Structure prediction request, 363 residues.
Amino acid sequence: MARKRPRTRRGLTAAVGLGIVGGMRSALPPAVIAVRDAQPKSRLLRLGIVLGSAGELVADKLPSTPSRTAVPALVGRFASGGAVGRRCAGTVGGLVGGATALGSAFVSHNARRDLGRKTGLPDPVIAVAEDSLAIALARFTTRRPLDPPPPASDSAAGDEAEKPAKAAKAASQSKTSKPPKGRKARKAAQSADARKRAKGRKAAKTAKAAAAANAATTAKAAKSATEAKTGKSVTAVKAAKSVTAAKAASAATAARAASAVTVAKAASAATAAKAASAATAAKAAKTVRAAKPADAVDAVLPKRPKGRKAKRKAAKAAHAARGAAAEAAKTARAQVSQASRSTRRSVSRRRRPGSRLSRCSHR
Prediction:
């Protein structure tokens, strides 16, 4: 994977220059990086990038090629300039390279069009000149190395770190260059080497055990932290559930109280209706008892008339009075029967096991 370079003046300059090249030819900056820095490491991928750049140079001369100011072409140029700029100068270089590529796309498009109109040259000739300009600019931009020299502190630290390795190497070379003489000296040297190797193995085992212990301690600490977080989340969930249950209980209590009030109101209304219907029935019964057809006829009819005409008139009047009395009695009986039916219905509803009145009475 390519190393992201720090932001320097040289890197920003390269990002701007390659962004301008990317606005003219979108595949040319990645091809320059692939050839110059051998990035990416895969040879096939680098070869594909270079062949893609060459194909773009050929396709630019065709009349069927879409304009570089179209949205897909602009997205490709911004991505090319941003990737190369990030490779040269980090995140800021990526933004600078992408923006420069967008501006270069519009400027180069308008310049190529205006130059063709003024000079009358064919478009492929101007395209070849644009290719030469883009390649020259890319080569000029990347003529110097982009990596800055390492700071003095880093070089000193590297020398200090390499001193023990150099000393060990020199000691081994001195030992190998001057072998000991005699059997005893050789045996002593071999035993000393064996001891050093054993010490090195023990030190390596100790370091591995310490690293394993540190890893186990870190894993235990992470596990305990995770369990603590889980316990806190479970406690918060339980508290939220208890609060929700309390709210639901209070809502249920309020609903029960409202239903009890509603049932009481319904019971009082039913009682009032029953009393009114009973009073109406009593009044109707009194009216029926008081209304007697014979008394009504006697009250209406005068004394016995004399003469045929008078008798006929009296008979007609008596018949009409009897009919009116019968209609009144029939109407009173209908009212009485209707009042009794309504009273029975209200009583039966109150005694029904599924109704609100029966529930209220059972409670």
Remarks:
- The CA atoms of residues 263 and 356 lie 6 Å apart.
- Confidence is low (pLDDT under 50) at residues 152-157, 357-363.
- The chain has ten helices and no strands.
